[in-house]
Amino acid sequence: NGDITIQNSKHLASLSSTSTTMQKTDHKEFTAHIVTILPPNSTNSKMTAANVHIPKRVETSFSGTRSGVVRIVKETIVSFTHDEYDEKWNSFVESIQPTADNDVVDFTIVVVVDNGNNHGNWTFTLDLSSKLRSSPMMTKINDTLALQARRGAASQNSTCGLFEVFVGYLIREQQQQQQQQEGQAPIPGSILLMVPESGLEGALTNVRGLLKHALKVARGNNHH
């Protein structure tokens, strides 16, 4: 429809030898889907250059010897192309919703690339955060964890202090309701974290243990 371009969506094996080494000493392993977002008025070349290292950066920053290893199993690149968000938002939602039970991941990490316009980037992420907050697919929104991630991002890059970091529990509401009606166990959800690319390491390092604990708590109490 021209409103959004999903440039790349693929399933991945573990992207770093570091995580393979850590798996030998730590039985805890988590899976993640990375969604890299290009805001309006950005160049594809800038996004491509930034995206090259994002999966490995997430694995390195989000994995911990005590909290557990994070393995990237899917990567999607989404390009927003103009200021009308409705159809683009719907396509973005489709990109983060699992298509089958075996596509359920533990974490959905939404990484927003800087478009070089601080004001434009701020309004764009504010809009995305607002839509996520009001979406029926999001539950257990955690502003405390979002603030912690925001502080970590700002410690890496001071301009990230303006970024609307978001943390919540992502579910497939319709399928969950259907399974509950049929007496089946609800489909597991995932923790969604939206962070700026320029403060990625700081944000993830600051909350990696807390987010993994939050996932266990959320999955232990899926009713909302």
Question: Could you name the key traits of this structure?
Answer:
single chain; 224 residues; alpha/beta; seven-stranded mixed beta sheet; disordered N terminus
Draw up the topology in text:
Layout: E1 4-11, H1 17-23, E2 29-38, H2 44-51, H3 54-62, E3 69-80, H4 86-96, E4 107-112, H5 118-134, E5 138-139, H6 143-156, E6 166-170, H7 173-181, E7 190-196, H8 200-220
Parallel strand pairs: 2-3, 2-4, 4-7
Antiparallel strand pairs: 1-3, 5-6, 6-7
Helix pairs in contact: 3-8, 6-8
Notes on the protein architecture:
This protein has helices spanning about 15-25, 45-50, 55-60, 85-95, 120-135, 145-155, 175-180, 200-220; strands at about 5-10, 30-40, 70-80, 105-110, 140, 165-170, 190-195. It is α/β, with parallel strands linked by helices and about 220 residues long. It has a 7-stranded mixed β-sheet, sandwiched between helices. Mean pLDDT is about 75; it is low at about 1-5 and about 15-25.
- Rg over CA atoms, rounded to whole Å, is 17 Å
The percent range for strand residues is 15-25%
In DSSP terms, counting alpha (H) and pi (I) runs of 4 or more, how many helices?
8
Widest sheet, order of strands:
1-3-2-4-7-6-5
Choose one word for the global shape.
Answer: globular
Judged by helices, strands and strand pairing, the structural class is alpha/beta
- Stretches where pLDDT is under 50 for at least 5 consecutive residues are 1-7, 13-27
What is the number of beta strands? 7
How would a textbook summarize the main sheet?
A: 7 strands, mixed
Q: Report the end-to-end length measured between terminal Cα atoms.
A: 35 Å
Rounded average pLDDT: 77
Helix content: 40-55%
Pattern of helices and strands: EHEHHEHEHEHEHEH
